[in-house]
Amino acid sequence: MKGAKVVVELLERQGVEVVFGIPGGVLLPLYDELVDAKFRHILARHEQCVGHMADGYARALRKPGVCIATSGPGATNLVTGVATAFMDSSPLVAITGQVATGVLGADAFQEADSFGIMMPITKHNFRVMDPKQLPKTMIRAFKIATTGRFGPVHIDIPIDVLTSDIPEKELSKDYPIPIPKRNLSQMLDAVKILESAERPAILVGGGAIWSNSGLEIIKLAEILMAPIITTLMGKGVVPDTHPLVLGVVGMHGRQGANYVLHNCDTLLAVGTRFSDRVTGKVSDFARNTKIIHVDIDASEIGKNVKGHIGLVGDAWTVTNALIAGLQSRKIKQSEWKKRIKEIKEACTCDFDLSGEPIKPQKVIKELSRYLPDDAIVTTEVGQNQMWMAHFFEMSGTRQFITSGGLGTMGFGFPASIGAKVAKPEKAVCDVAGDGSLQMVSQEFSTAVENNIPVIVCLMNNGWLGMVKQWQKLFYEKRYMATMLGRSPDFVKLAQAYGADAIRVEKPSEIKEAIKRAVKSDVAYLIDVVIDPEEDILPMIPPGKKLTDTIYGRCCFSIKG
Amino acid sequence: MKSVRDMVAVISMLVDDEPGVMQRVMGEFTRKRINVETIVVGKCEKPDKARIVLSVTDPVKAQAVIEHLRMLQEVNEAETVDESRHESYLLMMNDFGKARMTGSIEELSNVIEKSQPKKYISTVSAL
Question: Which CATH superfamily hosts domain A3-172?
Fold first, then answer.
């Protein structure tokens, strides 16, 4: 069997239903086989977006997304997509073509050392030099991507490997990979600490999303009467409507959540890596708090926050084990319970702001109201992302997909396309900024051509808003290169690609636009002209303490 | 000049004997900002496997990097090795010719100090 056929055959056997890709010279043998493949191929317009689409697909379905790019520039363009998936532990299988083994290393046309380039931004990567290794590599790649902590795996395949003959028996062999071990030796200590905690709290990160353990987290929180706070990546794992859920923590988090993070005496951290955006100045973080750190990746325990109890295992298993350990024990802290209620109430300030130009908070409020209860929302990076993180209400079974670790502008739109392909029955809405969208706007072509009716809600303020906000707050309003002086007419831009679009300039028009967009059977852009002077506040300045918070409109009155 | 005696942590790994493994392993040290003092790599008793033994000066960092090394697909085992199992190797040259020695880290660094060779290379291995 030809190498290219082997790739297609093994993708089919892995249950792959769709791949995102862009062809190229060295991929011609593979694309020739794709003509007869059982799965769908979606042609994107830029390799970065190929990666983000597969990533969005993977996050929506919690199964590996597959992306394909050619050698050289194809591979280097794909780097941002793969790095984004790596930072957020998303299972990707990225296949790149490579020049023939005979000229590899000779600076051949479209040659780049993609094996070397991808190494630090993948969970693992392969270069297949021996055709006989191709089946083994393909099978192991999927296993590695989805075993233990998920992550992207890259396979670099030279063109002559795609054209050589491979014995078919190699395809049906089993190629096991080592399974990371659980370590729950400190379980008893953890249970004892949680049991005797006076002010416990549960911090939930992306790990809990990947292991789908929202229900278990809530059950555990109810046993402990502990508030649940989430990281950006954990947003949506528990519904915001639950009385114990206080929302997103961190630099732009909810003040109620931040208050709890900094005032609890015991913190159970599940599937989170204590990023600097959560902890602030890490040397001052949680000095008097006992931390129990649950993570599937043993190397995360003690990496950023040291000297605490570690439980190594997936969020679902460990949470269930903790429930079993704590269920029969007497937990009493009525005072803390009362306090949580006060905090939750103090942190539900009104942001249904009227007035023109439209306030971004109003847009998010309307999205919370009028997007369906099972909608998938994606975000770009910057103010739009933080407004969504702070204000968007995760009710029902909504999913929140964002580039948290790498912070990739231009992630949200292609990721929404990937998510819509994964779950076509759901409304998928990308909340974008005008800066981010212009990095990837060519993908309207992909969405329209392939009948992928995503919604793009563009928060158009004419600035690279987040950087502008920092220049305003920390650099004496010396604005440099943050005003987007000449942007296109986004409505016409979307229409030029065959998408539908509407401009919204009055708060009263937002509702109708969202309703129309949800019903649309073609990609739909809502160009909301928002107030350029509105910042994302509250904010804890970088490296500072909770007491240094810049509040803005936030009226949270319980101060740390 | 830092003598080999100052070295405090030795890490031993069993890895797949494949191209790119050294790059991947060393990448972890680069990213964690750890300077590697000595490296010994070679074939071992297991087919298609190799051992990497390297030493670093910071035992705390060594302990932290071990978990990251274990996460690598091609690293089968990674552990720190205690002092009793260290074995130092010295190749030196002066005007009279070449000499090679093995011994404890302590012994060989004494030799270097006393004989002040014109040129030398010293490394640490362990099993």
Answer: Thiamin diphosphate (ThDP)-binding fold, Pyr/PP domains (3.40.50.970)
